[in-house]
Amino acid sequence: MKYSTLLLVIACFLALLLVPFGVGNYSVRLATTVFLYAALALSWNLIGGFAGYPSFATSAFFGLGAYVAGIAQHHGVPMAGAWMIGTMACGIFSIGFGAAILRLKGHYFAVASLIVAEVLREIINTSTSLTGGGMGLNIPVFTSNPDLFGRIFYSAMLALMFASLLMTIWVSQSKTGFALRCIQQNEDAANVLGVNTTGYKILAFALSGCIAGTAGAIYGSWVSYIDPSDAFDILISVKPIIMTLLGGPGTILGPIVGAVVFLMFEELVWRNFMTIHKGLLGLIVVGLILFLPTGVLQIRRSNSRAWSQMRAWIAK
Amino acid sequence: MSALLQLHDVSKSFAGVRAVNKVSLTLQPGEIVGLIGPNGAGKTTLVNLITGVFPASEGSIVFDGRVISKMAPHQIAWAGIARTFQVVQPFPDLSVLDNVAAGAMFCREDQTIDTARAIAMECLEFTGLAAIANNPGSTLSLANRKKLELAKSLATSPRLLLLDEVNAGLNPTEIENALKVIRAIADRGITIILIEHLMKVVTRSCSRVVVLHNGELISDGATETVMRDERVVEAYLGPKYAAKFKLEATQ
Question: pTM for this structure?
Answer without folding.
Answer: 0.87
